[in-house]
Write a structure and sequence with these properties.
The chain has about 130 residues and is an alpha+beta fold. The chain is built from 4 helices and 4 strands. The protein starts with 9 loop residues before the first helix and ends with a strand.
């Protein structure tokens, strides 16, 4: 291992390296799932914006996965397949956002998370509700 940090201990340097690898692996997974390899423009601003959206989307997937039993370390593709890709109706109004899952949607893990029939405060003061 090469470093110019002579003050930190070997254990600290190895721990930091491992943390960086976890971040790089998460970004690699997100790039594969959210198709960041198919950028539509070579303009620097476009790439930066796309990468910012990728990091936000990946973070939102991680937050959702944390509330689901058994998905804390799952990759984005598995989270999407098992938790997000299901039939639902979404109503957006000035009073809030409501998500109604279809009766045949497979929801045992989502049901166990406690998110269904929960009112959430969204930015702007609107109410978001799943049920």
């Amino acid at each position: 291992m090469l470093t110019n940090d002579r003050r930190s201990s070997a254990a600290k340097l190895i721990t930091r390296y491992a943390q960086r690898m976890l971040i790089e692996n998460a970004l690699s997974d997100a790039v594969r799932f959210f198709h960041m390899d198919a950028l539509s423009s070579a303009v620097g601003l476009k790439v930066d914006f796309d990468m910012s959206l990728l990091v936000i989307a990946s973070g939102l997937y991680r937050l959702l996965a944390r509330t689901m039993r058994g998905y804390a370390d799952a990759q984005a593709r598995l989270i999407f397949r098992d938790l997000i890709d299901m039939p639902a109706s979404v109503e957006v109004s000035t009073g809030g956002v409501q998500v109604h899952f279809h009766r045949r949607a497979h929801l045992p893990i989502v049901s166990a998370s406690g998110l269904l029939n929960t009112r959430l405060r969204c930015p702007g003061g609107t109410i978001c509700r799943c049920g």
